[in-house]
Amino acid sequence: MSELVTGEAVALELRPARLPSRALAVLLDLAAAVAVYVAVTIALVAATASLDEAAQTAISIALFVLVLVGGPILVETLSHGRSLGKMACGLRVVRDDGGPIRFRHALVRGLIAVIEILMTFGVVACIASLVSARGRRLGDVFAGTLVVRERVPAGQAGFVPPPPPWLSGRFSTLDLSPVPDALWLAVRQYLTRMGQLDPRVAWSMAGRLAADLADRTGAPVPPGVPPAAYLAAVLQERQVREARRAFGHAQAGSGGPVAGAGGTAGSPVGHVPPVYPAAAVAPDVRPVVHPVAGAGGEQASPPQDGPGGRPSTGFAPPA
After folding, report:
1. Less Cβ around it within 10 Å: N or C end of the chain?
2. Of 158 and 278, which is predicted with more confidence?
3. What predicted TM-score, i.e. pTM, was given to this entire model?
4. Is 160 within 8 Å of 310 (Cβ atoms)?
């Protein structure tokens, strides 16, 4: 596991690709490039048969540079680090900070690959990858990139905490179609890891994500609702709609996830919903104790509204 810290003080747990998987990806890329090079060469030889030897040599050199050098650079730039071989092996090239690569990164990697892969038959790249702690070759070192494993087992995915009960179904009328997938992914990643962040950083990130989500949906964050709880409630609403489309109204028609036996809505069976960190909970929230009906059969009083006219969350920040 390689832990990288971004400018937002978020630790990214990236799994660097090791030599066997990288070597297999390079072989697949080379096989595809050579196949294209041979096909284009045969076509050019037939088309330039009337030219002299010097012109044919110049065309052959230009074709070699364009296909075997420029081709991988173009593919990595357009696919953001996912060439054909890397897609087959579940790998991806990213920057040192975990972001997608750009043309300059692909250019440096492609030019150095001519020396350490093509001219030395991969010997230099193998030695550099074995020596590096994160399996980087010289092209990665000079370009500031890293090849990581993109496929993570499903069991290692983080658990998304459910929103407070009084927020479930509150955003059922929101139009979620304008929200891009990248923003949904950012919200999910924040919710699964907000307990690992510094409280001030967590609160700041939640506020920015909530503001972006509110701009996309056109509905501002309700007054008094913590940003993290708002994100969890809107994400749960999206999951409910996805479940309704996939499985019909039987499982998701109630406006919220179905609770399992011994569990709460949106959580696994027997799972106790985690308490939001102190940074994600309003500081004035206190749990409400509901009185039990007396011996004379008096009806218990309904839950009282919390500060600001909203129901109490039941969450209390740690001392």
Report:
1. C
2. 158
3. 0.48
4. no
